[in-house]
Amino acid sequence: MGSLQKYGFRIRTRNGLILDNLSVQARDRSEAERRITQIYHYCEILECQENRPAAHAGAADVEGVIALISKTRELPETRSPTDTVVAASADASHSSSS
């Protein structure tokens, strides 16, 4: 059993509508085109690209994610702009009532 590849299509439907970014997994391009034409009867295939997966970096990716998570946990707490506005309006209300 061969490995499946991902193919990206741009087609024109029988009603003339252009559809981009249709994605199909198949063993080869002819099988991918056959699947598209089964789904979209009487369509015109305008473009087909084989989407090759990016090379996996393996353990380095996992280590990178762990490092990123560790960095975000070490960051000091920050206030959002809405917290600042609420705090400023609370200070203003206390000083005006005095």
Protein described:
By secondary structure, the chain is an alpha+beta fold. The protein has a domain at 5-51. The protein has three helices and three strands; from the N terminus they run ββαβαα. The chain has helices spanning 29-39, 59-74, 81-97; strands at residues 5-12, 18-26, 44-51. A three-stranded antiparallel sheet has the order 2-1-3, with helices on one face. The longest helix is centred in the C-terminal third of the chain and has 17 residues, at 81-97. The chain starts with a strand and ends with a helix. The mean pLDDT is 79.
Beta strand count: 3
Helical residue percent band: 40-55%
C-alpha geometry: elongated
Mean pLDDT rating: 79
How much is the radius of gyration in Å? 27 Å
Identify the strand order in the major beta sheet: 2-1-3
User: H/E series, N to C?
Assistant: EEHEHH
Low-pLDDT stretches:
none
Question: Helical stretch count?
Answer: 3
Distance between the termini: 81 Å
Structural class: alpha+beta
Strand proportion: 25-35%
Largest sheet: 3 strands, antiparallel
